[in-house]
Structures are given as C-alpha cells and as structure tokens.
Amino acid sequence: MDELLSKSYYRILVSKEIDDQDKCNLIAKMKYAYEDQDALIIDYLKNGCVDISSYAVMLQEKDQSCRNSDIQNKRINLWKDYYSTFAVSQDIFITTQKIFLEEYIDDLSPRDVYEAVKFLREVDEAVDLSLLLTKSIDKFVDKVIEIDFDNYMRFGWPTELLEMIKNKISVKKNPYSIKDLLNLLAGSNSWNSRYIPYLRKFTESDYYNWIVEESNVDVVDLLCEFVKRFHNLEGDDYVIIEQLRRALNRIKGRSNLDRLRVEYLVYQKQI
C-alpha cells in the first residue's frame, strides 16, 4: 500500500527484477492508477479509522470534479439531439437546452453558455437568453483578477465573448485595499502569492496616498517585509515594485525626515 501511495508502482511496472513481478501482476490485474482519494482508503486500511476532516478539501475537489464531468456528459447528450437525429423537434430541442442552461448555469463555462445561447438564437430569433450569458460571465469574472486572452483564444474561446469578459474585468472593483493586501502578503509568516495580481490595480498615487495617510498599522514594517519577500517580482507583476518605488521617491521630497525614512528602506531592502 505504501508503494501504491508513493506512486512507485510506476517503477514496478517497468522493473525487470524477479521480486517485482508478483506486484506488477497484481497492479496490472487491478488496472490500478493513482487517485488522490487512495490516500484516504489506504489510511483507513492501515489504521482502521480516518480523520475525515484532514481530507475535506481533497474530497470537495473530487466531488466537484465528478459533478463537472456528469454535467458535461449531460450537455454532450443534449447536443446529440441536434447533430445525430432528425427525430427531435425544434421546440423540444430549445426547451431542453433552456432547462439545462438554467439548471447548470453556475457550473458551465462562459464558452459553453455563449455557444448555446448563440446557437439557440440562430435557431429561433425570439429566443433571448442574454441574461443567462451575463450571469455566467459575471460568475467567471468574480473568480479572476485578469486572464490571458491570447491563451483563451488559442483554446477556441470566441473573440466576442472574450471582449465581453474583458469589459467586465476592466470595471471590476478591487475587493482588497492596499492595507488589506500588504497585511495578507507581508503581515505574517505565511502568505499566498495569488493576492499579488490585485496590487497591479493600484497606481503610484494610490500607493503614495496610502503611505502618507495610513496611521493604524506599521507602514514601514509592512513595506520592508513586502519588499524583502517580493522584490524579485517579474513580468507584469514587476510594475508593483516600480509603482511603489516612484511613490517612495515622491515621499522623499517632502522633508528630510521622509528622505531618511525612505533611504533607510532603500538601503536595507534595495527597493
């Protein structure tokens, strides 16, 4: 069981050692392939009980993955009514598609919804499901900060849909303040780099105003720790360091005291 959990069974399958042959035959007979939930099963077999809470995240992800797979299978079967038979009438086809979209709108990708809505409108101009498409786009945008549009285009997402998403993202409000983000990223011994892109939404003036006006937290300590952890940001994220540097250079010009504060940061953390 330990070998299965560590995925070393791949080594067994290609091994020429005689001692591995029985194991290889057993694995082949079971048609075994590693899944994350195997850790839970092996834990139970070895110990007779399981702390299910320690597997909660993994199980939730697996449940969602299975749900997504089931929904996609249903979607594929519905579209068979269009491309594999003449026995399904237009009214029935439209009705079943609408019911499916309404039931699973929260689970489908905007691309799936866009294609269905556009096709149904082509079938019958009176069918307007634009509100469902808007709901799907809004839900997608709520989960992202920005997207790589070129990458989505390579995967066949329509340009019109991507433009709609782009417009939504451009007016999306930042759910975090600079103070919130610096606390999340530099205010403790643990941090999650997924918050970094949110900082790109702030301008030099935003950073300047926050630094000179904030009095409820240790601004100097947060800035020092942030730069210590993230001074090597690259690509699009490097603009964060650039904006912060410009803001601090503006602050240097306010007074000798501010100049000493900033130069201390520059000297110590090389911002």
Task: Write down how many β-strands occur, each being a DSSP E stretch of 2 or more residues.
Answer: 0
The fraction of residues assigned to DSSP E strands is under 5%
Poorly predicted parts:
none
For the terminal residues, how far apart are their CA atoms?
Answer: 51 Å
Largest sheet: none
* Radius of gyration, in angstroms, nearest whole number: 27 Å
List keywords for this structure.
single chain, 271 residues, 16 helices, mainly alpha, 67% helix, 3 domains
How would you explain this protein's 3D organization?
By secondary structure, the protein is mainly alpha-helical. It folds into three domains: 2-54, no CATH class; 89-170, no CATH class; 178-269, no CATH class. 67% of the residues lie in helices and 0% in strands. It is built from 16 helices and no strands. It has helices spanning 2-5, 9-13, 21-30, 38-47, 56-83, 90-104, 110-123, 130-143, 149-154, 159-170, 178-186, 196-199, 204-213, 219-230, 238-252, 256-269. The longest helix is centred in the N-terminal third of the chain and has 28 residues, at 56-83. The two termini are 51 Å apart.
Concise account of the structure shown:
This protein is mainly alpha-helical and 271 residues long. Helix content is 67%, strand content 0%.
Lay out the secondary structure.
Layout (H helix, E strand, L loop, with lengths): L1 H4 L3 H5 L7 H10 L7 H10 L8 H28 L6 H15 L5 H14 L6 H14 L5 H6 L4 H12 L7 H9 L9 H4 L4 H10 L5 H12 L7 H15 L3 H14 L2
